[in-house]
Design goal:
- By secondary structure, this protein is an alpha+beta fold.
- The protein is about 30% helix and about 40% strand.
- Strands 4, 9, 10, 11, 16 and 17 form a six-stranded antiparallel β-sheet that branches. A five-stranded antiparallel β-sheet has the order 1-19-18-3-2, with helices on one face.
- The longest helix has 29 residues.
Length: about 375
């Protein structure tokens, strides 16, 4: 089980499936792929795979950083470049000086037969692959957490306080203060902008402005300009009684079984269309001076246009986790690219006055340089 979940093949397969589903979701914006059980299950399996892969390789890393059994590998491998030397003690002294000058960390062990020297440098590079693995794990966990975020629309009428949808926030309300259509120098529409105030328990807590491609951010929420429209505020009168009411644009309002009215826009302004039995009977221009007859003695007056703005409110609780994962990943790549681990092993055999060494580093150019330097030191004493 452990071997299966820690295999590279499983990890690559999961990444491939997740990538395919993500591409499909990108081209189908209305789909529920990201919040589906199967997508979350694949992310969870990828987390387990990365976790098992990392734990499988950690013991070797811990051994490299630990001082225990530092010299056990000397007995398991044959060091190359063995040479007989005349002054073994002097050679060790010069090698020690070389390591000190080049800022190596040096460990030594001596027994009656051998002197072992282990020099290491830029050891953090060994942790780079594990840091990258852990960062990917954190990013995937953040993606899973982000799946439980919300994305809801809220219609804000000018001057009214409305609650935010419960899925994104049950404690805040929003009031639209102003809505603007922004024009460029040529007279074309450049943007739409909403200015609003956020309330908490009827107390204002934050003012914000959002526009297309420039969302407002607050407490883990993002407010996007999604749509806009206009309502029509009118005064309905019946004799001496009157009431202020609002009606939407381009949507039929049923007054009785036979009569429907529609507020619409014409080239010259706003109009009221009156339908009877599904047939257009009358068209009235809307202005504050004209009383428009509706039904049974009801009249309409004092027309005002009131804009509203539709904001898309999104929450992503996993975003801070994802960003911390990317930050950790950048650290891992930095160590991998600029912190090449270097390891040099020296073995001096007392009885034969012979010395051998091995150089281990991923930096090919540096490896050749280290080998030449050691050859020069040892060659001068042979």
């Amino acid at each position: 089980m452990f071997k299966y979940f820690s295999s590279m093949g499983l990890g690559l397969g999961l990444i491939g499936l997740i990538a395919i589903l993500s591409i499909i979701a990108t081209f189908q914006p209305g789909s529920l792929i990201y919040s589906s059980f199967s997508y979350r299950g694949l992310l969870l399996l990828l987390c387990l795979n990365i976790l098992f892969c990392t734990s499988k390789r950690l013991p070797h890393l811990v051994q490299k950083f630990s001082r225990k059994d530092l010299f056990s590998s000397f007995n398991k491998e044959k060091l190359n470049n063995y040479k007989n030397i005349k002054k073994p003690e002097e050679s060790i002294q010069q090698i020690r000086k070389y390591f000190k000058d080049h800022k190596f960390r040096v460990f030594e062990k001596t027994d009656p037969q051998y002197t072992y020297v282990l020099a290491t440098k830029k050891k953090l590079d060994l942790a780079a692959p594990h840091i990258i693995h852990i960062s990917i794990l954190i990013i995937v966990i953040g993606a899973i957490i982000g799946n439980f975020g919300g994305s809801e629309s809220v219609q804000c009428n000018l001057g009214q306080i409305v609650p935010l949808p419960e899925r994104v926030s049950a404690e805040y309300q929003i009031k639209l203060n102003d809505f603007q259509t922004i024009f460029d120098d040529r007279g074309d529409i450049a943007n739409w902008r909403s200015a609003f105030t956020l309330f908490r328990d009827v107390e204002p807590v934050k003012e914000g402005i959002t526009q297309v491609n420039d969302p407002f951010k607050f407490k883990g929420m993002k407010f996007y300009q999604s749509a806009y429209g206009y309502n029509h505020e009118v005064k309905i009168k019946m004799g001496t009684a009157e009431e202020i009411m609002e009606f939407p644009s381009n949507r039929g309002v049923q007054l009785n079984e036979n009569v429907v009215i529609v507020f619409a826009q014409s080239e010259d302004g706003y109009i009221l269309q009156k339908y009877e039995n599904n047939h257009l009977k009358e068209i009235f221009e809307l202005n504050s001076e004209q009383d428009i007859p509706l039904i049974d003695g009801f009249t309409l007056n004092d027309h005002k246009v009131k804009p509203y703005s539709v904001l898309k409110v999104k929450t992503d609780p996993g975003l801070p986790v994802v960003m911390s994962g990317f930050l950790l990943m950048s650290v891992g790549f930095f160590l991998s690219w600029f912190g090449k681990y270097q390891e040099i092993k020296i073995e001096l055999e007392h009885d034969k006055s012979a010395i051998g060494y091995s150089v281990n580093t991923k930096d090919k150019w540096n490896k050749e340089k280290l080998q030449k330097d050691l050859e020069k030191i040892i060659g001068g004493l042979s």
